[in-house]
Amino acid sequence: MILIVSLIKAGMPDCKTIHGMQIQAFASLLEKYQDFNTNPGAEKLERIVQRMQQDFTDYYFIQVNNKNIGVIRILRLKDNICRISPMFILPEHQGYGYAQQAIVLAELLYPQATSWTLDTIKQELKLCHLYEKMGYKPTGKEEDIQDGMTIIYYAK
Prior knowledge:
4 helices, 7 strands, seven-stranded mixed sheet, alpha+beta, 31% helix, Aminopeptidase
């Protein structure tokens, strides 16, 4: 069976769905690091609503054969810089290359972007590998959130 990955623009009515998916997708990292300040899995619905209202923010559902399996948020920043924050795939759909395809599709949607940025947890080697495989390079900026948890910044 051919699995077709697509990005479908989300709107204000989708905030509750995005929130539920985000909690599910980030639950294991929230449990592992107990980081209730920066983990998207600990965010309130109101935060997603606020972001959805930003004129420089676009949310997209990552779909496989028309089923929502994740979300990617693109921020259109000054100087034609785009930022991915956050992107997630539901746990049962991880490991199939969908995140890679979603990144490619997102980058194609913003041809005016001269560079892309994102960040992730340095200790999560699979996530770092994914972004590095997609051409993202560490910027040298790192931020210690807590003992054993460092945010590493990437750019492409």
